[in-house]
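A favour, since you know our structure tokens better than I do. What I am after is a single protein written out in full by you. Could you add the entry underneath, on a fresh line?


***
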Amino acid sequence: MTPANLSSPYRDLTPAGGCARHVPRGEMERCEREDSVNIGQTNSTGNLGLDAFADAVAARIAARLNAGQQPRLLSVKDAAAYIGRTPKALRHMIADGAVPTVREGGRIHLDRTDLDRWIEMRRTAA
């Protein structure tokens, strides 16, 4: 075993079982810090660019996981945003009968699958 005052990049550790193992200097402190962190709290790497990248990846993963939980029926405003039109333009399309609607109690909703079908019908070959 190497004495602690020598400039070895490793620190000798003897766990409770008595078996010695080598851990790089600094690694033990990092492990001790990680062990003391409560689960559910966010960690920062200290690198703002890396933290921003990790947050963006997490947001994209969360959006994909929640994609299956989106409502099937959309309001006129949400449906317009979904197809890339203004609500006023979508209302004109509804009045012309270009897009099927679901009407209930004075409210107008649009089915997401009908909107997807409408988009597919207007797709052109490149």
Q: What stands out?
A: The beta strands are 10-13, 21-24, 73-74, 102-104, 107-111. Residues 73-121 form a domain with the Multidrug-efflux Transporter Regulator; Chain: A; Domain 2 fold (CATH 1.10.1660.10). The helical segments are 27-36, 48-66, 76-83, 87-96, 112-121.
